[in-house]
Amino acid sequence: MAGFLAYMEGLKPRNKTGFVFGSYGWADQGLKKITDIVGGLSWNMPSGPFFVHYRPDNDALASLKK
Q1: Which has the closest alpha carbon to 64: 50, 45, 46, 43?
Q2: Whole-number Å distance between alpha carbons of 33 and 2
């Protein structure tokens, strides 16, 4: 993921839509860093980031459909 994000920072593609999502076990700093990088690309983000501690359950997945 780090390599891809570094590549995207260099390309700086415009007029894109993105969504940041992921799960974490111990700390969510990596997901926050991804959010910062994607936000810095000025992409359209129709929804805020979606982070889940460990594995998402059915309720967490259902909240994405709203």
Answers
A1: 50
A2: 10
Residue pLDDT, tens place only, 15-42: 999 999 999 998 889 899 999 999 999 9
**Cα distance between residue 31 and residue 62, in whole Å:** 20
Q: Supply φ then ψ for residue 25, to 5 degrees.
A: -105, -55
Amino acid at 35: T
Is the C-alpha dihedral spanning 40, 63, 61, 56 positive or negative? Answer: positive
> In the predicted model, what is the mean pLDDT of the chain?
91
- Please name the amino acid found at residue 66: K
Residues facing 23 on adjacent strands: 52
